[in-house]
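Sequence dictates fold. Next comes a concrete instance:
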Amino acid sequence: MTKGFLISFEGIDGAGKTTQLNRLIGHLQGLGYEAALLREPGGTAISEKIRELLLDARNQIEPMAEALLYAAARAQLVQEIVKPMLNDGIIILADRFIDSTIAYQGYGRGLDINQLSEINLMATGGLEPELTFLLDIPASLAAERRRGSVPDRLEKEGIEFQSRVRDGYMALAMGVDRIRVIDGTLPPEQITERIIEMVTLFLKGVDGVEN
């Protein structure tokens, strides 16, 4: 059995990740691949409870406590769901993963990047996505897209915070080969086409996987 692999989607809130994740999993399943969609934080009973704490706008959470809660949810998800699925040969599409911690808690909150990287390493046991799509849009456009919805705790931080997070994502992308930056202001159909094209090339390069 071919080992599965992990593809993550990143970007500030409102970048369009959900739309593209749903389109990609539909495409892969239509081709006969076994694929699963997971979200962070979440994906397990424990991780979903942590998600409720983290996103509840009524909660006041210290930055390091926030980072550790995200790491705890991620550790549970990796051990309970991700590793078994990968061993079963399943393609996992993750709505956020390790890069979110660096972008949000590192660049957004101002926590030490190296320390956060160590926390990620402990939480995942060294597991990283093999491919990451970063949907990049200006914070002002993201805020416009979210208008009318009830903001969660992080969305309430405002445009300046989201701009710092965006800058963090772009800094990450400059030094990490697996990250593919996509212009999130393009029409959704064009974004989908680009993602499918890149995933198709990726699949051709995975040993034992035929397109």
